[in-house]
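Quick illustration for those who missed Monday's session on complexes.
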Amino acid sequence: MMAMAQKYFWRGLFAVIMAAGLYATFLRFWGGLGASTNLSDQFPWGIWIGFDVLCGVGLAAGGFTLAATVHIFNIKSYHAVVRPAILTAFLGYLLVVVALMFDLGHPYRIWHPLIMWNPRSVMFEVGWCVTLYTTVLFLEFLPVVLEKFRMHTALKIMKGVTLPIIIAGVILSTLHQSSLGSLFLIMPDRLHPLWWTPLLPVLFFISAVATGLAMTIFESWHSSKAFGRQLEYGLICNMTRVLAVITAVYLTMRFLDLSHRGALATLNEPGIERWMFGLEIVLMAVPMLMFFREKTRRHPLAVYLGVVMFLLGFVANRMNVSVTGLERASGVTYIPKWSEVAVTLAIIAAGFAIFRLAARYLPVFEEERHEDQESVPGTRIPTLQGAAAQGD
Amino acid sequence: MARAILFDSTQCIGCRQCEQACSEGKKLPYDDKIAAEEKTSAHKLTAVRTYGERYSRKLCMHCLDPACASVCPVAALQKTAAGPVVYLPERCMGCRYCMVSCVFGVPTYEWNSRLPYVRKCDLCADRVPKGEPTRCAEACPTGATISGDRDELIAEARKRLAENPEGYYPRIYGLEEAGGTSVLILSAVPFDQIGYPVNIEKTALPQYTWAALKHIPDVVVMGTVLLGGIHWLTHRKEEVARKEGRS
Ligand code: SF4
Ligand code: SF4
Ligand code: SF4
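Prediction with iron/sulfur cluster bound:
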């Protein structure tokens, strides 16, 4: 009974969100940006850039971090989560492109940067990287589809080019994850000193790596619920430990930078900035402290809460850089219109729905191990036992 | 021979002839209601603003190294040798990064249009390369706005400051702001009192992004070597095992 009620609740919510999103879409493409957003000449970028694009790309970072972990660093115990991570990344990027189509004044010109070059532009670089990387993700995910339809020859060809594709993917990700931070380097006198720093690209990169990991844990948790699989505690425990370390590096850099630039003094100034800054830091620092404790790492619910908190902290950071930190200099307050929120929610909901479908009908969560046996003969037996032991 | 504008706010009487001439030249509607809006917008490329007894003009500053042109992913905004920063609407994809990046808050957007474009002053790019004055300068009855060669206008501004030190705040706005602009401004009071942002970086803003962008080739080359190397190292044991297994 409960389960049924729950199912209908989620379906109903999904339908409502989609309906609102559809109506907002109509508003956007019929009435223009003025009718569908609260953007203005003073505040030209809102949540479609700040959340849908900046956060979207960051939350999809699991693809490259795990592809690198498994295929480059050869840490096989992570093999089981590579595919879901790549699927999330691929979907994430596709949805970012969809979101961008809403935000661009001339969406059908989204391909312009490919032929109209301005190599001095960070946005130009981001455009190229995202295009190439989405292609790479498609290629990285292709084997899953080929496997499903048992296209063995194609699968073999794909195996041969895996390494260059993975390396290209990691480099492209490094470039554009950091470049999303570089976008804001052009406004040293307007972005609040709590967020403007020449280190923006580095900080964006590190927090994206951490977020990729957090998203992977988040997904494993959910898919284990949805598909009734065992949660791979050994692996998850390990990932939360790595997450804690990366977050520690990130926060240390963040505070060193703030203190070197003397920006911490602005915390004495009244205003929304210091609270939003505090929120962002707390949401990241608390999970970090939690995950440094062995006990918490072994507690599934604590892991889940910690990871969600971390993800919210990441979102808070991106929103602060793109919205909160710019409001004061712009002289206006920006609060998104309902239609902006509706579009964003619809995109998220669509993401969840597509992920579920793909996870159900494609070998995303199963069969990695058999595949592993084929690809690395010789070492598979001890490795697999190790992975299995850790996984259970 | 880059063209520029010198706006001497001490001589401005707020008659808005410059606004009207600009709108007429750009075939934009202009009436009393629009005249009363003291800000630039998609239908008003320059605005005269009132600060008590004083007036100031807002228009694109035509930076020497403009942030807007450097950030535009499709090079829809370009600094021309003649001085104007021009906009090529057929390239623009509407990302509005130019608006976000401009420290003077200049580019505006056609928010109510279904296929909107960016609008801003283009320093009468159809005239100044031929040595003609801008429309606003031509229309100005008092000589508060004049156009001409940038170096000559700087010399003129310096002369005014030297001849009448009492009457002026002792700086030329636009000489160094954001790396220098093609619109130069004189004022009797500190510039923030008549609506111009102060404390703007003296370096051209594109330097900040370039500092990050220039590392890209290194990241690509080093990254490939590094990742390839790590892959080789971490997979070596397997290679060896595989070879031994075969032989
Ligand atoms: S003032 Fe703004 S819009 Fe005008 S050239 Fe400079 S950066 Fe571009
Ligand atoms: S809105 Fe148009 S002109 Fe402005 S940066 Fe984007 S593409 Fe370039
Ligand atoms: S036309 Fe000249 S005097 Fe009249 S408002 Fe414009 S700048 Fe001032």
